[in-house]
Amino acid sequence: MRGLVIAILILIGLALLAGCGGSATPFSPMNSSLQQQFESAARPALTTRPASAPKLWDAKALAQQPLDAKPEPVKEETIDKTLVRVQEVIFNGEKEQEKAARLSAVLVSPVPGPKVKRLPAVLVIGESKESAGAAARHLAVNGYTALAYAPGGLTDEAVYKAKPALKDSALYGLVSGAMRAVSLLADQPTADPRKVGVLGIGWGGVAACLMNAVDKRVQAVSAVLTGPEGVRTAWNEQIGKLGEDRERWILAYDPLSYLGDMRQPIQLQADPSGKFYPVSGIRRLSQDAKSDVTLLFRVRPKGQKAEDVEAARIWLDSALKNAPKLPGLKAQADGKESVTITAQGGGPLKAVTLYYALGNPLALEGRPWKAVEARQEGGKWQAALPKETAGQEIVYFAVAQETRGGAVSSDIASRLNAPQPS
Q1: How far is CA 417 from CA 298, 330, 410, in A?
Q2: How large is the angle between the packed helices 170-186 and 203-214, nearest 10 degrees?
Q3: Torsional sign, CA 109, 110, 116, 119
Q4: Phi, psi values for residue 280, rounded to 5°
Q5: Mean pLDDT of 161-179
Q6: Which fold is adopted by the domain 328-415?
């Protein structure tokens, strides 16, 4: 009943504002309850974990357990005219009941010179060995020691699970195994243990966010919160099936439940129409995390890879190699049927694209997005909205491409109470 009353009040408020014609401020973000809901992203978030929240991972114990690593013979590959070493390593996972599962990962690094140099190191947590291995090779070619870890078995049934115990979720094993993999990576003579990052794809992206909160060895995280190879799991739908275990599972595995503990830089890559992890949750992560967050929303054509490894690599360079940071990007609709995009910091931009969608700003999943190229005017970029947006509610965001290849997006914004077309 309460929800029905709120919905009716929202509709009445919007009707009154529409009747005000030109006397109302056209784009004021505080003009409606709907706008306020959009700005708060309508998602619960915990900046401080309650004392009753489950404590699943003992990072100190996981780091201290012996690895008993068994490396396979080294193979050499030439990638983009660069010679790299590729080596599968078998190692101990978490020790439980006096036994430890044996895990597998692939170590990729540039062929060292006469004097071994410690390089920034990145753990790649993938949905498949192929995607994780390809990302690790790309990072190695660009001066990283990388470790590809993709244990598999991450089905909906295995992940969205809270019984008989929370640790029975495959997500628990993914994180604990990844933390063991960080130990293996940091032990490599070509890895700098003070500069360890994580690139996570799909469920690996969720694991990477959790590791930012629970593993202090991790110094930077790039999380691709999009389902693999076009698969878009409906997060909210699956969580709803947990019934009475829903809140326990969320406290254990939703990155929003760890906001207060995320203190290292994060890059969040996502499809703004995706259902794998709610867009509202990604927006809350970017708004409320205590760490520095870089957004990269990508409208992904069917069949295109979820991850942009090159964009992740350039961002990791800024976090682990002291390369220049990416710019902060802001997009703001004005009363002239256009959107102004401004960048703060970072390198020069070579292109800016505005993406927009019509309709209710609270329902982003599955929306069709359209693109408009922006023009540079002085120190800003201007994107003219097409006629179809006149008098319509729209949601929009901008993506900027740097000349060095880096990419960044603004947050998703909304324009309500738009002026009627003349």
Answers
A1: 27, 20, 21
A2: 60
A3: negative
A4: -60, -35
A5: 95
A6: Immunoglobulin-like (2.60.40)
